[in-house]
Amino acid sequence: MNDVVIGTGETVAFWILGPVALAGALGMVFSRNAVHSALWLVNTMLALGVFYVIQEAPFLGAVQIIVYTGAIMILFLFVLMMVGRDSSDSVVETLRGQRVAATVLGIGFAGMVGAGIARATEGLVVTGLADAQPEGNIPAIAESLFTDYLLAFEVTSALLITAALGAMVLAHIEREPGSRRTQKELSRARFLTERPQTLPGPGVYARANSVAAPALLPDGRPSPESYATGIEPQEIDEMARPTGRGQLGSPDAALGTLDPAPLEGPAGGDRA
Amino acid sequence: METVLPAEGLLGWSWLLIALPLAGAAVLLLGGRRTDRWGHLLGTATVAGAFLLAVLCTVRLADVEGRSVDVDLFTFISTGELDVRAGLLYDPLSAVFALLITGVGSLIHVYSIGYMAHDPARRRFFAYLNLFVAAMLLLVLGNSFVALYVGWEGVGLASYLLIAFWYTRPSAATAAKKAFIMNRVGDVGLALAIFVMFAQLGTTSYAGVFGSVGTLAGGTLTAIGLLLLLGACGKSGQFPLQAWLPDAMEGPTPVSALIHAATMVTAGVYLIARSAPIYDETPTARTVVLAVGAVTLLIGAIAGCAFDDIKKVLAYSTVSQIGYMFLAVGLGPAGYVAGLAHLLTHGFFKAGLFLGAGSVMHAMDDSVDMRRFGGLARKLPVTFVTFGLGYLALIGFPFLSGFYTKDAIIEAALDRDDAWGWILGGVAVLGAGLTAFYMTRLMLMTFFGRARWEPGVHPHESPSVMTVPMVVLSLGSIGAGFLLVKAFPLADWLEPVFGEEHEAAHVVAPLTVGLVVTGVMLVGVLAAWLFVGRREVPVTAPVRVSPVTRAARNALYADTINESLVMRPGQWLTRALVWVDNRGVDGAVNGLAAGLGGSSSRLGRTQTGFVRTYALSMLGGAVLVAGALLAVTSG
Amino acid sequence: MTLTYYLVLAAILFTIGAVGVLVRRNAIVVFMCIELMLNSVNLTLVTFARATGTVDGQIMAFFVMVVAAAEVVVGLAIIMSIYRTRRSASVDDANLLKY
């Protein structure tokens, strides 16, 4: 058993890559955007891969970079693209005390485990892998994997097959054959209607841009197509519509932002 | 008790006595409506067949040495030390009872064919009657106290079913419950007596128990005697459990005749006579039997004087007459035969009287109010004559049944030759006078005087299917006493059971006793004529009456005493227990449940459905585990 | 510089991952945090393999990677099917299983 002394090069690499990995982890937790989180995580994983190589496990380092950063993170990004951003990206915490408790417990946990590690590794003799893998890392792993861990290795193949099947079953959508609408049918359905333009967005003609404010048709009636689901349509526009040339005046006056006259109308509200 | 021979030949078949009516009951109950048309005939035939068999068996029995046979049937209960063989004991005592039950039972079955002719549930009635006969025969034929107990409960059940035969009437249902519950009080005594026997002797068979009576301590014997007496009081309607018997008259009249006059209510007398070896050894219990008999005799006679309900008067008369029998068997060896002879003659004339009362009710549209009878002698000649003969037999008219047997009891009481003897004799003589008074009152109000019928009632004589049994029973009323006491002395027949005939001391000459009793009886008749016969009977009972009459009308406040001593405290106890149960037991249980429910619904609030909350608690747990590990390893 | 530094780094990364699971609501980000925790454990395994002088730790880390890959595949499929029905990838929105 020869005690391996950790060289200066490794120390330097650790002190560079360690903070990088930490920064990646923190960045992942704190970025609002899930895509950014994924990229921060890639950062951490790459750093870890280098750590593996440094620690005499070049095979694992390669696998880490190829499988984790190459395959798994790309899978994450695919799913992110399909799911898209939603309210869960918000940084507002909805559970009371969750963040404080998580932070306190996290610090406590880190302290406990750190203390445990410090106690356990006191006087730890580093044997090094030079004797264990005389012909290199990959032959040593192969020998161990295909002899001692053969059964576990075979079971792993069953696990992967099952996972692939499971993913297919879960992600599959049952559709009636022929029910899928082609692009031709979709464009026909879009144009051969009574109103060949797009539906009005909420608040387009109104004086408020709230979702609850319905779009107004040219004659001043609210357009039923623009009602938001689940929200009572609000009658925002109580103001008397200016009519006549004098009252319309300039385009600014027509919007009612500069001309004070309409504000004194019967239902005039302050739109500040 | 002598060794009893195993049964052979015909006597080995004596279990058929029980099986026949039981099979009849089973067929009628299980057969349902299909047996409606011929059910009454089958019911009568089984009992008549049993009577025939009983006669043949008894004739055979006369030739058997020792006149007792044991019919071993099968193992009834076998557990540990207790090994109860179901078997029958056919000896002179049970033979006499079997003859009485099947004989009177057959006549009453025949009578019921007519009496219940218009009742839609006649088949059910006969099924219950058969059930009763089977149970009663088991009671008297069983060779152990356990077999007796089975029969005892069986007749209790049949009595309940028959009293409540018209169960749609609230009064009948109530009376049946009252009878059943008061019987239970007595049955507890009997059951305890059997328990004591088993605990002390390890057996319950008659042979085993009576064979080792001498080994028992005096206190135990007295306890057994008193407990048996309690059972006998319950079943026979004796003081203090006499109140159910008059109410039991809610049942159909043939039931009153068969069960509540001739057979079931005499089961108590049978029990005490059967347990003679026990009572012979315990004078204390015997004295209590005497006291019970004397008190009941007077209570029954006094209450009988006041009621206007013809069946209730007869019922109190039954109570009183069974009091005579208890008095007799309480006298010990001197009185057993006298008591049993009175039981047999009473079975005849009281059954006849009840059948006559049933006939009168049949004629009067089921009315029982004697104040609305009167002048029926000419309308119902057969009933009048047979009823009259039963009446004369009951009051002890010279040379009729009751004269011989009642005199024998009074003589036996006087023969004690001590203060008790004079008291008991005096009570018995007084009872005879009262009996004469209330029975004469009944006769006068029912058959003589002006007709006070309800409008629209047209009395008519009953059909011959009813009158023939009455005639047969009235013949028994005339001759049974003479036959049993003089011609074929019952004492000789029962000698194997009760030993040699007791040589009477004759403190008072029998002739003197006969003359005195007859004189007192005549005084009673005269008094009844003075009070009732001379005057017009008011249709409604007078309200302004003396306290004595009021007490008698209330049956000497037996129900009131029962209510205030037992019912009210029982109700209070029940209410208290219900309160404790509701507040204490339920409160504790419900409180615990509510506490658990409340705390669990509060704990359930922690299940927010947010995965992150759960994960937080997991992390907390991990911190705790890491801390614990650290603490353990550093220690 | 000893191997303890690697272990402490792994512990800190694990804790950051755990806290991330607790504070992030986007199911995909939560998943990423879990991956981070698995990776930190792998670092521990590799480090101990080096310390003890056997390749068993590396084999273990290899298996962890395989299982993590399988887990990610199924987990993301589940997230997708939930998103398809509920139009949300928030772990807080799937909270029907409660009192």
Provide structural commentary.
The complex is a heterotrimer of chains A (272), B (635) and C (99). With 272 residues, chain A is mostly helical. Chain A is 53% helix and 0% strand. Chain A has helices at 8-30, 34-54, 58-83, 98-120, 137-147, 150-171, 183-191, 245-248, 251-255. In chain A, helix 1 (8-30) packs antiparallel against helix 2 and helix 2 packs antiparallel against helix 3. Chain B is mainly α and 635 residues long. Chain B contains 26 helices and 3 strands. Chain B is globular. Chain C has a single domain, classed as Helix Hairpins. Helix content of chain C is 78%, strand content 0%. In chain C, helix 1 runs antiparallel to helix 2 (27-52) and helix 2 (27-52) packs antiparallel against helix 3 (56-86). At the A-C interface, helix 1, helix 2, helix 3, helix 4 and helix 5 of A face helix 1, helix 2 and helix 3 of C. Chain C: It is an enzyme of class 7 (translocase). Chain C: It catalyses: a quinone + NADH + 5 H(+)(in) = a quinol + NAD(+) + 4 H(+)(out). Chain C: It comes from Blastococcus aurantiacus. Chain C: Its main location: membrane.
Topology, please?
The complex is a heterotrimer of chains A (272), B (635) and C (99).
Chain A (H helix, E strand, L loop, with lengths): L7 H23 L3 H21 L3 H26 L14 H23 L16 H11 L2 H22 L11 H9 L53 H4 L2 H5 L17
Helix pairs in contact in A: 1-2, 2-3
Chain B lengths: L4 E2 L2 H4 L3 H16 L7 H25 L5 E11 L2 E9 L1 H24 L6 H20 L3 H19 L6 H32 L4 H6 L6 H19 L7 H4 L5 H10 L4 H8 L1 H6 L1 H22 L5 H21 L5 H28 L17 H15 L5 H14 L4 H29 L16 H24 L2 H4 L1 H4 L11 H24 L13 H7 L4 H47 L6 H24 L1
Parallel strand pairs in B: 1-2
Antiparallel strand pairs in B: 2-3
Helix pairs in contact in B: 2-3, 2-5, 3-4, 3-5, 4-5, 4-11, 4-16, 4-20, 5-6, 6-7, 6-11, 7-9, 9-12, 9-14, 11-16, 12-15, 14-15, 14-19, 15-16, 15-18, 15-19, 16-17, 16-18, 16-20, 17-19, 17-20, 18-19, 18-20, 18-23, 19-23
Chain C lengths: L3 H20 L3 H26 L3 H31 L13
Protein name (chain C): NADH-quinone oxidoreductase subunit K
GO cellular component, one term (chain C): NADH dehydrogenase complex
Family (chain C): Belongs to the complex I subunit 4L family.
